[in-house]
# Entry
Amino acid sequence: ALALGAPAAARAAPQDSVTVILLGTGTPAPDPARQGPAVAVTVGARIFLFDAGPGVVRQMAAAGLPVRGGPVTRLFLTHLHSDHTLGYPDLIFTSWVMGRRTPLQVVGPPGTRAMTRHLLEAWAEDIRVRTEGLEQEPADGYQVQVRETRDGIAYDSANVRVTAFQVPHGTMPVSLA
# Structure
C-alpha cells in the first residue's frame, strides 16, 4: 500500500505490470450499450489488442488508452467474422491520421492479408488525398504489415509471448484463441 502523498513515480504502475481491458463484449446484434469484441492487454507501455470490433478506437480513448501516435504494439485477429473486424479499418486509418508513422503490425488467420489489401484499396482515394494533398500525412503510417498464422507463437518479445491455437467456431475455417 502507498501512503497518501507518495511521489508520482511510486504511484506509477511497474514497468512490467499487466492490465486487461475489455473494450467491447457485444455480439453482431446492434446494441447501443455494447461495442464490438475487442480486448486490450497492456504490458507496461505496450498495448496488445485482440480483435477490432465496431467502436474499438473510441473505446480505447474512453478507457484512457492513448490513440494519438498509433501506440498499438500488435493487433491479433482471432477470426474474420465481421463483428470482430469492423473496427479494423478504423484502427488503421484513425491511428494514422492521429500520427502513426510506422506500419500497423497485425497477426491473424489466413485471409487477413487479403482483407487488409482490400481495405487499403477501398480507401485508396482517402490515402491519396491525405498523402499528396494538404494534410501531408506520413506515407508509411497507413500501411499494415500482416503475418498470417494457423497456430504457434504469434509474438515473442521483451518477456511477452502470445501463442495462438485453433479452436472450433461454427464453420469458420480458422479461428484462433
Observations:
- Confidence is low (pLDDT under 50) at residues 1-12.
- DSSP finds five helices and eight strands in the chain.
- Strands lie at 18-24, 38-43, 46-50, 72-76, 104-108, 144-148, 152-157, 160-164.
- Helices lie at 8-11, 56-62, 88-97, 112-122, 124-132.
